[in-house]
UniProtKB/TrEMBL annotation:
Biased composition (Basic and acidic residues): 157-173
Protein name: TLDc domain-containing protein
TM region(s), chain numbering: 58-80
The TLDc domain, residue ranges: 245-407
Length: 412
């Protein structure tokens, strides 16, 4: 699109001037051209505006989706971390309980515990250690626990029973918390997915509308009523030519006639010609810098070395594409009673206009064409023959629906 924009910008000053041809030939399309209501400048501006709008929409939708995804990820991470801190697994509790019991045993069995205290003399002269080592004499002593811990009183719930009950309640609370957290996370995920789906649907609708708008501009006829090119095709040709002025129609077979004499009459001695061939869904052509000057001898032909390059506008690539010819750039023009390799016009790159095989055909639209495979750019999607040669018209020999000849306005 950058090349199209550049050429469209360069057209702004040129299109503001009135359009006129250097020479008006009666009965040919080279007569002065009247512009349509919408100019090429306006159409190109609409195309650029639609492109920019599409890019802004895509950037906005992408940014919203990215922010939403990051926020969703952070929220889920926070919820998961909170659940891990709030709900302690039962295995962790059991390990903590065993660790506490081991700590208790360690304290009791330590050198400073009751069993390992150093014996000391009491006021009566007895050793306390001996008194403590004596067997228990009464039932009160028997009620003491293994580690001198008192036994639970009558009617009091044992400590271990209370602990077990508390653990059960904690397990129940933890299960409830996990269930609530799971429901909350599912709700958040569902809402987020719904938001993403709605955003994607909105993006699809917006891009579809913009694509329709851009395609409509691409297929919009250009300013000249006698030219069948779309805005995109015209801008592509204008950019390849590097012209500072608009293109005008010199010849069109549907309006000027289909004979070789009709073509020569309309073209005259003009140079810098763009020949466009239409056949079904295919639109292609060739540029020649020399023009179509027949020889002085009407029964002979004339060869002229000149700049030649080809192009495809529709049916071969995903966009208008220029095709360069590496060598052998010339054009053969037959006299009105002569032949140029069995045709009226033979252009390097293998295009024969008015081809009849042995002798030129009466209709200039009778064509024979193929492009050497080595000259075909990458991305070609059109037809080929068994040797891999590109057939820009769909087959080697065909009858064109229309042949047009254009020229930059003001050129000699």
């Amino acid at each position: 699109m950058s090349a199209i924009r550049t050429s469209a910008a360069e057209d702004q000053t040129a299109l503001s001037a009135p359009l006129s041809m250097t020479e008006a030939i009666p009965g040919c399309m080279s007569s002065p051209l009247s512009p349509r209501v919408m100019t090429l400048e306006e159409a190109a501006d609409q195309l650029i505006h639609a492109e920019r709008k599409a890019r802004k929409q895509c950037a906005a939708v992408f940014s919203c989706g990215l922010i939403l995804g990051i926020a969703l990820g952070l929220l889920m991470a926070a919820l998961i971390n909170g659940s891990l801190r709030t709900v302690e697994p039962p295995a962790a509790r059991e390990m903590a309980s065993e660790s506490d019991q081991n700590d208790t045993h360690a304290v009791i069995g330590s050198p400073i515990g009751p069993a390992n205290r150093c014996p000391a003399l009491s006021e009566t002269g007895d050793w306390e250690g001996e008194r403590q080592m004596q067997p228990h004499q009464d039932g009160t002593d028997e009620q003491m626990g293994y580690h001198d811990l008192p036994e639970a009183a009558a009617g009091e719930t044992p400590r271990h029973s209370a602990d077990a009950k508390g653990d059960g309640e904690e397990h129940a609370d933890g299960a409830t918390s996990v269930a609530s957290l799971g429901c909350s996370m599912q709700f958040v995920v569902v809402v987020s997915l719904a938001a993403v789906a709605a955003l994607s649907a909105y993006q699809t609708l917006q891009l579809g509308a913009l694509r329709t708008e851009i395609n409509a501009i691409h297929t919009m006829p250009v300013t000249f009523p006698d030219m069948s090119l779309t805005v995109l095709q015209y801008a592509s040709l204008h950019g390849w030519l590097g012209a500072k002025k608009p293109l005008g129609v010199v010849y069109r077979s549907s309006g000027d006639g289909t004979t070789y004499s009709d073509l020569l009459r309309c073209v005259g001695d003009k140079t810098g010609l763009v020949i466009i061939v239409r056949r079904g869904r295919y639109v292609f052509g060739v540029y020649i810098s020399a023009g179509l000057q027949p020889p002085d001898d009407p029964t002979s032909y004339r060869r002229c070395n000149c700049d030649v390059w080809w192009f495809s506008l529709v049916g071969h690539f995903d966009k208008p594409t220029k095709i360069k010819i590496d060598r052998g750039q010339w054009v053969f023009v037959a006299g009105r009673e002569g032949s140029a390799s069995g045709a009226s016009v033979y252009i390097s790159g293998n295009l024969y206009l008015g081809d009849g095989g042995v002798w030129p055909a009466a209709d200039i639209r009778s064509c024979y064409q193929y492009t050497n495979n080595k000259n075909v750019p990458a991305g070609y999607m059109g037809d080929r023959d068994k040797f891999g040669e590109a057939l820009l018209g769909g087959s080697k020999k065909f009858m064109a629906d229309e042949i047009e000849v254009l020229q930059v306005v003001g050129s000699e």
